[in-house]
Amino acid sequence: MAERTDPRVARTTEALTGAIVELAGQRPVSRITVAELAEHAGITRATFYNRYAGPLDLLVQVLAADLERGHRREEELRNRGGHAGAQLLRLATAEVVDHVERFEAVYRQAMRDPADRGVYEALVRHFADYALAHITRSAHPATPRTNHKVIASFLAHGFAGAIEAWLADGAGSKEDLIDAAVACAPVWWG
120 and 100 in contact (C-beta within 8 Å)? Predict the structure, then answer.
């Protein structure tokens, strides 16, 4: 039997999610106070601190949950079959780029402020975990046998850096970022 979520908890989560995305789209999360966030969400500071260590913690969880939804869609496509490695890579990359577009204002704010590298670091950690899982299950004969954590970190920093450059450029299209990321993927990724 599936656990039911208390509607009050769901409303609080939804209010906090909306508040952090709105505020972090206006200024870096490092400049958002818990008091301001709690007021914006219509909750108490105590309620906030019962769930999160700070605004960055909440924002990272919101962004990670959205990225995970995209990964679940990718996994569904992988399990259904019918998609070649290159095609699946392109679809998975497009899911991430869709995520970046949904949270573009948040990422732009976070990447402009040197005190706010926590969002970028969380993005790198997320991609490193994803890459490590992908490498571990890869059956491609050219998959390197060297330290997978180092490879995953290298790939994660590259992809996060590509996103940062794409956001900073402002002139590139979604397809430009997808094409660049796919072009840089190792041959054994597919």
Answer: no
